[in-house]
Amino acid sequence: MKRAPRTTSLPLFDMPPPAAPSPPAARPSPPTHGVRERVAPRELWAAVQLPLATPVQEAAPQLARWARAAQRFTPRVSLEPPDALLLELRGSLGLFGGLAALRGELQADFARAAIALAPTPLAALVFARAGKSCCITDPARLVSRLAPLPLLCLRWPEEAIARLFSMGVRTIGEALRLPRAGFAQRFGTGLLESLDRLVGRRADPRLAFVPAERFRLRCEPSFELASKDFVLQTVAPALQALESFLRERQRGVMALLLRLEHRKLPATRCVLRLAEPEHRATALATLLDLQLQRLHIPAPVRYCELRSGPLLQYAAASEALWQPGEQGGGGATRMPAFVERLRARLGPDAVQGLCLLPGHRPERLSGVAEPALRRALPVRRGAAPPARAPWAAGRRPLWLLAEPEALVRAADGSGYPLHRGQRLNLLAGPERLETGWWDGSDIQRDYYVAFDVRGARLWIFRERSGAQGWFLHGLFG
Q1: Looking at 20-89, which runs of residues are DSSP E strands?
Q2: Strand order in 443-451's β-sheet?
Q3: What is d(CA 354, CA 372) in angstroms, rounded to the nearest whole number?
């Protein structure tokens, strides 16, 4: 009797599936089949699923709005386009009074969404896609809760789903009971790694959601605005939205642009510059009102657009113990507001600040800049010391003449300079300056500190080239 030829094939099932799969994360022994990575059960992920009735064109904007709102719960927010959001909540439990209180806050903020909590991000997504608003904190119970869910919740490629369906595999539990080696050879290692991330055998890092770094909001009134008061009323909700935008990021702005669009004329720009970072809508509205009063609006306004400048770190500070005017209380904190009001009423070019410029020529050491009135932050221990001036601060005056004044020499042949007909006595010097040869404005001078018969201290210099004349350049206080 002839025997039938033997054929070899790779079986899909090596043995009958066990009655109850044991969760891999609950066993102390390492996972089999070469899986070495393991996620510690220290994370708690929440998945927020958009309602099924959300239109496709509104899904992305709605998801971005929810992501910004979710940052009040945790900084670890991830987008799962096209219809889900992930939040890591383990570090936020103590801030909201426990898990029950935090779940209540989530349900209140995302009332129409399906919210599921699980130890792994992919498991939370699967529960939310299945419409299961559950909360699983024990990794040992994760596999048993995932087992009855349909395989479609994993959103694998349609070809792989169809092949699994043809073999009778329709739930996640049935897919988890398949032999790993055969599953990887038939469907690839990518789907096998997806199952490992699902149950916590493999790490599942997620990209953090990064909100916009600048604020921009367009306001469209129901009628054309012919009054500046109407313009301010229309922009008021945008200022409130800007305050919420800045509070969420703990930032402030030092520049604000209000763009007013007309029917036929070019847009009118209203630029507001601040002396220190600001985030309060009331303060911005007051300064914007002063700025609008001096602005000429040539035609009725059809649209208003509010844009912010770069966001800066906002340093919160306590109020002074003394009231303004008592023991000098409140003076330092009121100065930036005073400068901002002056600039809003008189214009940004009417009030300027001073700054030091690099170099050695005295007439080019200072310039005009934006007022820098930010509150000084405490210096950290070990921080680098502030940069020193390249000269001794006590030897140079703060009051320099616009142009050096020529001095007359004494007629007795000594060559000493005279000021108001009196001979000057030299106290210190010389301080030699030879610089500027690279740009054609070179100087060669010897500077001295002198005083006259009235006791006034002067800063004078003598040229080292040409006629070697004496000049008065500054006065000490």
Answers
A1: 45-49, 77-80, 84-88
A2: 399-406, 470-475, 457-463, 443-451, 425-435
A3: 9
Residue 100 in this model has a pLDDT that exceeds 50: yes
Give the H or E element holding residue 282.
Answer: helix 281-293
pTM score, whole prediction = 0.52
Nearest to 136 by CA among 122, 114, 120, 149: 120
Helix 228-249 / helix 281-293 crossing angle, nearest 10 deg: 150
Spatial distance between the Cα atoms of 253 and 274, rounded to a whole number of angstroms: 8
Q: What is the SS3 string spanning 194-207?
A: HHHHHHCCCCCCCC
pLDDT in tens, 330-365: 555 566 667 777 777 777 677 777 777 777 778 777
Each residue's pLDDT tens digit, 136-190: 999 999 999 999 999 999 999 999 999 999 999 999 999 999 999 999 999 999 9
Please work out, in degrees rounded to the nearest 5, the angle formed at the alpha carbon of residue 426 by the alpha carbons of 424 and 431: 130
Average pLDDT over residues 452-462: 83
d(CA 389, CA 358): 9
- Is 330 strand, coil or helix? coil
Q: How far is CA 378 from CA 116, 251, 253, 381, 450, in A?
A: 44, 19, 21, 9, 39
Whether 59 contacts 69, CB under 8 Å:
no
Structure tokens at 63: 């998801």
CA distances from 462 to 21, 294, 396 (A): 95, 50, 16
Q: Is 44 exposed, middle or buried (0-12, 13-18, 19+ CB in 10 A)?
A: buried
Q: What is the DSSP letter of 43?
A: -
What does 200-241 look like in DSSP terms, one character per residue?
TSS----PPP---SS-EEEE--SS-B-SHHHHHHHHHHHHHH
For residue 151, what is the DSSP state? G
Q: Rounded distance, CA 422 to CA 453, Å?
A: 7
Q: Provide DSSP, 121-144.
A: HHHHHHHHHTT---B---GGGHHH
